Records
---
Amino acid sequence: MAALLVERSYIDLRSQLTVNGFSDVVTSDVKYLLSDNSRAKVWSAGYLSFALWDAQTRELLKVFNTDGQIENRVEFSPLQDFSLEHISSSKKEKMQGSFGFFQRSCNAIMGAAGAVRRAAAKGAFGDDNRRTEALVLTVDGMIWTGCTSGLLVQWDGSGNRIQEFQYHPFAVQCFCTFGQRIWVGYASGTVQVLNLVGYLLGEWVAHSSPVIEMTVGAGYIFTLANHGGIRGWNITSPGPLDSILRSELAGKEFVYTRTENVKVLAGTWNVGQGRASHESLISWLHSDVSDVGIIVVGLQEVEMGAGVLALSAAKETVGLEGSSVGHWWLDMIGKTLDEGSTFERVGSRQLAGLLIAVWVRNNLRVHVGDVDVAAVPCGFGRAIGNKGAVGLRLRVYDRIMCLVNCHFAAHLEAVNRRNADFDHVYRTMTFSRPTNLFNATAAGSSSAVQMLCGPNAIGANTRTAEGMPELSDADMVIFLGDFNYRLDDISYDEARDFISQRCFEWLRERDQLRTEMEAGNVFQGMREAVITFPPTYKFERHQGGLAGYDSGEKKRIPAWCDRILYRDSRSTLLSECSLECPLVSSILRYEACMDVTDSDHKPVRCIFNVDIARVDESIRRQELGEILESNEKIKRMLKELCKIPETIVSTNNIILQNQDTSILRITNKCGENEAFFEVICEGQSSVEEDGQAIDHRPRGSFGFPRWLEVTPAAGIVRPNHIGEISVHHEEFQTLEEFVDGVPQNWWCEDNRDKEVILVVIVRGSNTTETKNHRVRVRHCFTSKTKRFGPEPNNSRQIQGTALLRSDVQRLSSSYDVVAHLQNMHSP
């Protein structure tokens, strides 16, 4: 019988290639299936369309796209409307008729797929931002879908689009629902918690890579990241438990806080489309750096020219970058740093003549990760990379460093343009993942301590406010490059004289960058070490010493064009390194390599001494476990939250005849917490004439039998309220058919009296434990077979616990309460 059921349920959309006379091969695969047990419906979903099916009859009910628009609606006659002559024909003809129905259903699907494909070809779906990536059924009977754009869409059980929400710009990867909460996992590693109406309760960074799956168990929501990491979060988060745990853990920060020290070398050089000698690179990057752990290199004017800029712009439009010249520089610097045995290059980014790259010492590599890059053109309408910036972001001991290599507008009088270039770079530099992605430290198997953010969440705000630049959320930012700021109100000869006398303080007073920073016009909140080296621009190539300044016709005034600026976590210079101020830096050396003559600019380098406060996860989890075990207030709260509301089910025995309806009442006696219920069918038995149930068969995944309708099969009963469930015998047509001499109906189910065991599963909103109530439902046949034809009458008999339909008042999705049932006399 199982084989026959499978054979009759099988639908192969690929076997049908013709729709309305036109060849139309199905190109939209079914990606997801969702079973709506309470309504006996099945959702099948592709990336851009949905189909809604009747789970019992396999009838295609509706096909619609991600906007909720019906692509192709097919009206089919129900099974009982088929003519007797058609159904009473041979078994082969009946099977052909059944597959004829499926062919029409299949054609409808393919027609919708073709419409979706044509719309996508016309750009109706943009960059597939509306692709469905996940879907879930909630306890109130609503269906939620998540899109590539981060859009969350709520649907009712009939496939009508109710409302949408946009709380995060990255792709939804998975859902998990428990009680009145919906957990959403994103490609950014962020987890959000919503209630059933879509209100954002809280969010935090759960992992440093995409959250690809979530499941519930033992009082926790477990999240699985793309890199294989698993973390558990208390199902009460966000909630009152978090603030208590946060306070308790804060008092033990000194126990699990560790301070790490890293030295960072940042170097900038405008190479003027030239090539450097090995000796020049040694002088710039390899001398006196034996204890440096991270080296960041920023180059400008690696290559220039109209052809190079045009090719770079074309590459950027299709997501490509880099050049042979850029690779030459990366290889040469890698050889200088003994790449492979001493250092490892972890990332790089090129935009036309701009190039940034980072090398990390091998013994530090395990603590560095999540490297991301970005580029912002500033030249020719903010589209060409002759001026602009390239950035690289990385995580070091769970703290974020952003490194930005810039080349701003040239010429003495272009101060405002340079300021505008910085402002454009700072505001628009966007990495492929949120800037806050790794700032939060997970609490292991715990609540979302210290990581909550939302309209009503308590704790540190770990989410960048809407419209805030991503660079503003990093723990440390280093800007390096050819900023092109010059010296004001000084002649070439005067500048040369002051330089020869090393009177740099007097020259610094005429430095445009210093003036603009003091006025708050550029590099706001950033600092620079005291300049003790001569201006680095402009020199004659291959001429050593201070005599090498430009002596040509233009005699450009020397200037400190090449600079390195920074900011760390400190709000004041006196702040000490702690979890509240996790990254504190100081300058060890800030110097120019005046002996290098390969370009008209001198290379500059700055060595930072960086202290980083981090959390020792193993110690912190140990402290958290001790708090959970020893804190009496927390233990009482957990015990109270895990209680299952006391409920009473009105009966444990129901007898139904043809089309009878009985009301099953669930009373929630708890005065504080909601009771969540779900009704499943444990198994079905046939009943002999002596009343004994025999031939028990577990229903498994088949749900309720076709003759039984339970509405709603899941829902919520509010405190001190009564919910009702309609248990109805659903008449369906049968056909007398003989198999081995025994009368059978068309579905090969005998027509003896039937008995099922319904299990009402009750639980609370914050516990995975359940309490089960079993209800025996027996259906007594009034005749052995039922031939097709008009109903003799519409009268309803009342027997046992059956009610007239006029006496039935059903619940809606979640909170329906029939107050007068408390005083109603039960039959």
---
Amino acid sequence: MVLPEAVPILFIPGASVLGIFFAFWLWKRVAQIQLVGGQSVVARGNGREYLLEEEQRGEEEVVAKAADIQGAISEGASSFLFTEYRYLGIFMVIMSVLIFSLLSIVTPEEGRTKEDELRNGIFSTIAFVLGALTSILSGYLGMKIATYANARTAVEARKGIAPAFMCAFRSGAVMGFLLSGFGLLNLFVSIAVFKQFFGDDWKGLFEAITGYGLGGSSIALFGRVGGGIYTKAADVGADLVGKVEKDIPEDDPRNPAVIADNVGDNVGDIAGMGADLFGSFAESTCAALVVSAVSSLGTSHDFVGMTFPLLISAAGILVCIATTFIATDLKPAKVIAEIEHTLKMQLIISTVLMTPVAYFVAVAALPEEFTLQVPGSDPEKPFDTKVVKNWYMFVTVAVGLWGGLLIGLQTEYFTSNRYKPVQDVADACRTGPATDIIFGLALGYKSAIIPTIIMAVSIYIGNSLAGMYGIATAALGMLGTLATGLAIDAYGPISDNAGGIAEMAGMGEDIRERTDALDAAGNTTAAIGKGFAIGSAALVSLALFGAYVTRAKIDLIHSSILDPKVFAGLLFGAMLPYWFSAMTMKSVGKAALAMVQEVRRQFNTINGLMEGTARPDYKKCVEISTSSSLAEMIPPGALVMLTPVVVGAFFGTQALAGTLAGALVSGVQLAVSMSNTGGAWDNAKKYIEAGNTDHARELGGKGSDCHKAAVIGDTVGDPLKDTSGPSLNILVKLMAVESLVFAPFFYNCAQGQGLVFQWLGQV
């Protein structure tokens, strides 16, 4: 059964718009929580019977203070993003000129004209701009939603776990569905419009569309790096001086860095993460489209079959809508012990529901059989024809879908303080920060084993059944429940901010205990989200690599890993994630050093600050984070963006192929271990602070030597889990998609030999 052409034309934008409307409906429910004294409740009840310690001071004062803090956080986040986007606007102009110039001057290959190359340059540039703008919009909307919901979550925490959980999760879901809906809708509209100009040249159409993925990921890189430096500089500064030296609680209003710390949660963990996962979606979809364009689906102009990747994403939005109701209405978390379970069930239920839906889409949208071109072994015939059955594509999507879930579950095991690995890290704090760090590093390295095996199995099955198209659709499967993944990912920083606001507004220990429980679960869900992003990045990078090899006309018969150009590129590429990580971690360290010095200065020079009778200069710390992050994000970004251009143009397409493979192989394990190590250190600290078990109470609780050791481990892990680690998955996929976009230009440089090797051959 093959669907009529009208179905994808109506279903894809329809599902996108429905997701956007669902996001607005959830936002309206969050907006019912009013930040007005005495009425800070959902309309169906006043909730005063739930007020705890702060009731003695008056509800109105507490809520007004929470609203003021929310306003300061929102203002700081907006100011940073607008400044960052001005820098990115300049980058977009430079990159657009570069894309147009390099692709338009390419000498036409056989069967193509100069007008074809000019058209490719124009529309690749337009697609890049559209992808970049969508990425910017994704990050900005996420930040606005998070800063709108943080104080409301804190206010709701006075009524109980369930109201606070529903507020944070609904707000995260608003971001998830807005991003999924806008990303899919913009891509579908772009394809429909481009189709009018490309006519029957579908190969050229989808090669130009890859610019959409390039735009999305290039903005995500700067968003992740810049936001990560901002948030971790403030976090490290606030923790080292406030918690270790001055022995004051986390998010204490006396700490000068506390506002910058909470602003950072939104610009790094929310805006950066939103742009990152949008980039993953855009690139995985573009990879599947560009590979299928040279299959029989593209050559026969089978529009329904070609939209299979988009149909999977559209169906995923509907599945996620159904799943969201379970967490927000049918079975929300009502006690602390249910929080992580409820979030985990979101992943499991969405995966279970998506599986039969993926099968239906595969058999309904694709013909029973179609053919793909795959690399062959005969020198006379470099490509073989592979017959693919439609149910093969269901298998590849399902492998990615369930592989993502398994990566998520094992990430939870290694980063949640409910399980032994994190408890062992906490126990290691008995003998000081050194053993805490040793145990945390070991945990991170060990946690890379299962995800690597899962990705290897997914790659093997995907490639065996459908070549690079199978690998690309496995990546799409991993992101098939993107809206739910984003919801539980965004939930974490919102809960973290809520805890900070509860502390600064003086809501009492009971409220802070609830927000800490929400935040601890959020650390785990953030690690799960990073696991999805890293896994999908590995798969999509390999699919883009395959498309690059084809487009750059690399001779696979005579090329091997032992080719000196390929092997040299492989070693260089394997080094790049370490170089990049060194740059980003040192940037966090430099910014944190300036922050620590400023916080110490204020504690030493502002009379009455420790006593709570004087107000710290929050603005100065915000300025330090802003200036440091904007200045320090440029060198790592330049490293990633310039490497493919320099290697491809000067050293040839084979050296670049080796570079891409090396970066992928080393970057994935490094990203997984960094993210999980940092998450484990953070939750080990919270395990000691909460003291919910006999073992945790033995460690001494807040202010003890064990706690101080855990805080040091947490600060070491901050740049690992929130700056370097999450940025590495962008590095591997961004280099791959950039290489694919510029492949015609690289081939044009001395027929792929590279300018340097061409010159050496003439000497």
---
Amino acid sequence: MHQGTLMRKVKSKSWKKQRYFKLQDDCMTIWYQSKRTGKTESAFSISDVETVREGHQSEVLQSLAEEFPPERCFTIVFYGRRGNLDLIAGSAEEAQCWIQGLRQLIDVATTMDQREKIDQYPSCKHSSAPTPSHSPIADHSPGPASPSPLQDADKSESGTLEGEEFVLFYKALTQREEVLSLFQEFSEDGKKLTLLELVDFLQQEQLEDKDIEEMAMELIDKYEPSETARARHVLSADGFLMYLCSPEGSIFNPQHRALWQDMNQPLCHYFISSSHNTYLIQDQICGQSSIEGYIRALKRGCRCLEVDCWDGPNGEPIVYHGHTFTSKIPFREVVSTLGKYAFKVRHPSSGAGWWVALGVSQDVAVIVLCGVVMVQDLRGQAPWKSWALQMASLSPTPQELKHKILLKGKKIGRLEDMLDGPGDEVPDVSDDDNGAEAEEERRRAKVVLMNDAPITQHGSALQKDKETLAQALSDCVIYCKNVSFRGFQEARSHSRPSEISSLSEAKARKLIRDAGNEFVRHNAWQLSRIYPSGMRTDSSNYSPQEMWNVGCQIVALNFQTAGMEMDLCDGLFRQNGHCGYVLKPPFMRDEETLFNPSDPSSREGLGPVTLTIQVISGQQLPKVANCKDGAIIDPLVRVEIHGVPADQAHQETKYIENNGFNPRWDETLQFQLHVPELALVRFVVEDYDKTSKNDFVGQFTLAFANIKPGYRHIHLLSKDGTGIPPSSLFVHIRITE
């Protein structure tokens, strides 16, 4: 890998170009260049790589299976929405060298602590490799008043910094005066924190209240770099900084990273991470359909996926956005992908094997032959029916549905008929989603599970085939039977907890505006799905917050589109083991609740809380994507509150000129939250521009309920939602009632 290897970079069956790949001396950067021109094309960091797939495990490589053996093929998968890198090595031995080498480097990168990331930072960003566009080391202009760190580091007095000299200079620049000052407040001699001094800090500032002395001992053992200090049960300034930069020092409550909520409540009592047209990875009209859309959504914690099934060639059903120019993928590949990735554990903290029920929202428009294939494919992947007949509850819980897959769609008859045995009633074929989706179905001349006309004994053979097929497909739908929404009173009188209605974002907003409390009550006993407007052809998103405010469980978003809306989604579902289910507050699970999001006083419980945030400093902020060479960012921090209308707010700090390296703000922002249980807090760093819109630098979003008070670091994420270590903010949080 250090010597370099010539491999084929593949984008399609016809696009196969030779590129020279080389691992840099820092063992953290890989760059590649064109064989023909010798021009460097790109570079990427090992920390950007999520995994390496071996063999024909991408659509592109599968299309080349007859031309290249699987032993020579592999796929580099990046975090976030960045496209995969498909490669074909010259031999199986070369492929294995890169596959195993990359996997080892990924393991090293993922197990680094914050101090190791900081120590790696200067060499990573200043190797002989091309400097990545987000390198922030140039984002500091010390000015004429501060030449001493540079002079001190220049031991050779050559006027330049080389090797260890640069590392010394970097460490001098990264000296955290604000952290040292805090350390010295609690240290009697200014050099160390004794066990009791650390206990005082944890109790007074971090507001820890359980087993504090034991916690202090654990922190010293875990983060103190000096063996002598560990033996004496004291914490040095370096150890103190390492603790503050660790998960225990994060603004996100580490206890909430694990599965911490009750998973034995009915499905309708949870917010459920949900995607819209999951197969699309671009726009809604001409975009690419890909199984990667499902893989990325599942890895992001999504639990409700969408599959639009249509009649395909040779009796094979296909998946695509009907009556558009989007590309098509075989239904069989989608089902196979779900079987492979649906229950993979991504986060160790989520518990061994814990992934709760996956809901698949399926839009079916197929002829009989394709429908038979669909049923065979489905039953080949999951026990769709057998387990359901053993269930007595019409309101199953995530715990009961663990490792099960639910199919949402049309259904003949009622769930009770499957549980108690078939009755004599005429099969009920429900209408599908109302509004724009229903209109789209009518335009498609869609073949439903059964014809609208009553079935008679004189029907044609085709009609009987459709009837048999309809029953087979219907039997795959267990708990999530689609029903049209005809008003809250109608739903209360005739609907059942096992049914679900889908509403467009516009219809949902009207119901929120006209009948907020009724909507909350409805969602306390039945599932609601919200989907984006058909006008969002660019795959843009609506804010999910207003839908969560009335308890809508399945708020479907276009996962392929980065932005504030997906930040909120990621922020809400970052908790609870990242399982994709978040328990709603008690006042939203009560069918007789008086809560209305437009009237915060209707919430039962304590009064408003005050959230006070002191934004102290920033560390190693990345450059913006379109930043000119040599330009230095002018960062500011904006804090946004997303919640009920009365809580919606934002405030921001002043901007700091020419310093993305270690800016200091020391500003205090304050917010009053009337319904903190529904609030999300979004921290955004932007590059100030007085002549145009500010540029995005980084963000982090979390539920108010997951915030830890005290002195905390906020580890920033990119627009894609991936980490950008070691970039962070240092803040102090206080919450008062």
---
Amino acid sequence: MDISALLTSAGINIGVCVVLLSLYSVLRKQPSNVGVYFGRRLVSVCSKRSDPFSFERFVPSPSWIVKAWETTEEEILAIGGMDAAVFLRIVVFSIRIFSVAVVICFFLLLPVNYHGQEMHHKRIPLESLEVFTIANVKEGSKWLWTHCLTLYIITCSACILLYFEYKSIAKMRLKHITGAPPNPSHFSVLTDAEKMYMIFKASAHEQNCQPSFMQRGLCGGATNSLEIVSRETDNVSGKTGSGDFDLATIRKECAAAVVFFKTRYGAVTAAEVLQSSNPMLWVSVLAPEPHDVYWSNLCIPYRQLWIRQIGTLVAAIAFVLVFLIPVTFVQGLTQLDQLQQTFPFLRGLLKKKFMNQLVTGYLPSVILILAMYTVPPTMMLFSALEGSISRSGRKRSACCKVLYFTIWNVFFVNVFTGSVISQLSFFSSVKDIPAQLAKAVPRQASFFTTYVLTSGWASLSCEAMQFLALFCNLVKRFVLRIKDDSSNCTFSFPYHTEVPRVLLFGFLGFTCSILAPLMLPFLLIYFSLAYLVYKNQILNVYVPKYESEGQYWPIAHNTTIFSLVLSQIIALGVFGIKRSPVASGFTIPLIIFTLLFHQYCRQRFRPIFKMIPAEVLIEMDQKDEQCGRMEEMYQKLRSAYCQFTITPHELLGSESLNHHDNEKSIPDPEKLNAGNEANQLNGSSSVVHCNLDIAETSKK
């Protein structure tokens, strides 16, 4: 691939981006599209735009760019939550590190690569991209020290930025937790329903009191360690007691129960303590937020989870193998000589310059992108089948799967190009991995560059346009004749697709920085545009329905470290092939330093993202007790984890039924009005509510 083919691809993508972003700036001004481009504002403000006709509505303008640029991180935290702020931090980190890389590589490496061998150079548009890669540097060149120095600068800069970002985000996470309103999940633990039933039943008999149960509802009791949850639940459940709601019913309904504690510290203590000598017999973990509960998975027994995880792993591997078909076809398009030999009838067509440039420079990445659209929904399905009890956990698991899948297929499978047989033969010589990568990566630099253009630039303009939502809105208004701007079709931010995409481009940038530095300016433009587009979407489109409180940053940190180490291993192989023992010798300590830095960050910052420190929880408990907010929190806990919302009208209706027929006192959950979006999932899960102070009982 030559420079002219690269410029052709760049020109096509620049044109697509300009047209789509200009069209977006016009469509967002139309009152009929307010539900598409301002869904979050419809939910928060509950207002509609006026419909005055003005010429300005049909003229593209950069007002949305200015607004996105001026928005501060504090506003993003208030609007989009912790996850949105962390996601933008990932983008900002990428802008900073690749700004450094662009300056160093363009002024230091590109001249060395271009003049790496004594040859007659063509005009720049006719030059092959390989001339600008490290493959053009001759063996034994004394200028390879520049590549080693650049690798050191990029690695040290990345580690410094990672350290300060990790430290800052950890502080932001703790500040966000302590500054937010009391969270029911901090007082709640998910435990074994059968065990809790036996405890409640035994405690009730000790006090000569029967606990009352309601199917898919609440549980109350009165003992030394248990407090009565709600008198109203007795009216709802009628005479349904421990005798009627037996152990067999609990086993049939749900394998888990939510237990409330009087303090946050008590809940954390119970979640961390091993409840039984058999770790799989009785498991307790902190419960997710009420809006974050994935109700349909609460009925999955813990002993089935490892089987489900193995099953989804096997299914994911099978999906990867099937995906080799489109990837292999794409690689055939990038190698024009092989394509002409396989399909002789294409020789005449491919002799045309424009068709040649289109097939080799644009079409392969487009085909791969279209095939990649099937990956996120598939991985989301696998993550749901794994048994995650929270929606944020399911999305985070899908994020990791999509990330691994894209890195494997976009980078490794494309690097070791050819057929499926050549992919498998790679594993027969694992010791030659650095050398094989060193030979293969520079050859694929042109494909990775065009992939950044098509999958990066074009995808951002498509993200701004919201084609699917726009199409649905057009059908609703002009086919179904529905004119109201309903906010019921809003979506949460698709972290499971966007985080892997951003991290994949960062991965490509690190691995190709010293090998093919010509890609870096295109990457920097992508991250700069991504910062504005994603910020605009967070402000106007997506509604934060649940969040993981910054859990995506450790994923970004680990991916960056992996990218750095892989780039160093590839550089080590290149220096070995180029016969530069000095550069090879200096690269080995850099690999060790990077791994030690990663281990330090894991010990220093990772525990803060796994668990909230007890010191912080105790301070929050003491502050709430002094301010008198605990009683208010206890009142909220009584109705926090209800899959279906019971309205006061339904509650009064059930009370009147109790006077006529106690057997019909339990309302049908299927007829109850669903509350918020998190409670609209159907399922047969049963949630048990109680109030247990583990700290007081342990002291006794």
